[in-house]
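step=predict obj=DNA-3-methyladenine glycosylase I n=185
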Amino acid sequence: MADAPRSYCEYVAGLERDNLHRIYHDTAYGFPLDDDNALFERLILEINQAGLSWDLMLRKQENFRAAYDGFDIAAVAAYGEAERERLLNDAGIVRNRLKVGAAIHNANVILGLQREHCSFKAWLDQCHPLSKADWTKLFKKTFKFTGGEIVGEFLMSCGYLPGAHVEDCPVHAEILELEPPWTRK
């Protein structure tokens, strides 16, 4: 029996170029994000992945994008009971009351961070660098449904924590050229 892959990089190396995991690995995972809506999207997907597989999130990503108005933070923050029920009845996404509620709540929190710091990204940059444990404490205090695994994956996936790729992965070199926040201590 072959050994299991030791890293995501090793896992995707054997996949076809059009595989969702390979595309995510090669074009999104670990790349720094500057757009607040893109950061919000990544946070919502990480929250929804809790207890499920990342494969499911990748397969449902476009459904999430449509259901959550393109991850427009202001639009999601304005959701009322009708939108909440619409989401809970949408078979194309994860229909979990706590996760839907967290998305709406967290959109409102991000609006507050945007008012105070000009952007969600500016708030993240202002807080950086923190250890994963300190990031987790901060996120738990600030947002809903953000445990250690969710926070760690969110921050790693958008360039605030290292470890998205092994050092000999060609994508790692691409990301280093972009100088993600984790490289600026």
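step=describe
The mean pLDDT is 96.
step=end
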